[in-house]
Amino acid sequence: MKSTIKLSTLGLILLLTLNGGCKDRAQNETTAAESNTSDAVIESNKGQAFIEDDASTPNVLQIAIGSPDHSTLVAAVQAAELENALVNAGPLMVFAPTNAAFDALPAGTVEDLLKPENKEALANILKYHVTPGNYSKDFLKKFKKLGQANNQDVPVEVKGDDVFIGGAKIIASVPAGNGIVHIVDKVILPPAQ
């Protein structure tokens, strides 16, 4: 009888020890899961522009980021904090000035616009480069003007086979997952209001 009590006591101690270990392991796993979840929440608070997705067709922002000829445009979009606007479902047409187009502006213009105190003016200029829709260069020939994201109209002009948006010539077009990027040779400046 004594050996049965000893065996039962030993079994109970072993069971409690194992159960305590399981609780510790479960607590550790719960803590790890909460940590991963909080990391995901922190990451998602930055917005959908910061979600990595290698399987989808690149969106307009990803196309600009991937182009060495658009590093100034990307820096401007980041300074104006417009990344999330460029990754929404769209469709969006972005008229993307090249680095050379930004370099053609008067000296100091880009540097001045990138200052935090000029964020609103910069955002207005960048929004003047975005139109709702997904139209090819040829289809744009049917328009006289486009309504831009900054609530102003931009003129469309056709000269032979060339299409000009606000005086900027479309030199190439790249389809995107949420619209199209029309590469232009000038920065399109909105009219003064």
UniProtKB/TrEMBL annotation:
A GO cellular-component term linked to this record: extracellular space
Source taxon at top rank: Bacteria
InterPro entries in UniProt: Adhesion/Biosynth-related, FAS1_dom_sf, FAS1_domain
Gene3D superfamilies: FAS1 domain
Location of the FAS1 domain: 57-188
Alphabetized Pfam families for the sequence: Fasciclin (PF02469)
Protein name: Uncaracterized surface protein containing fasciclin (FAS1) repeats
Highest classification ranks of the organism: Bacteria, Pseudomonadati, Bacteroidota, Flavobacteriia, Flavobacteriales
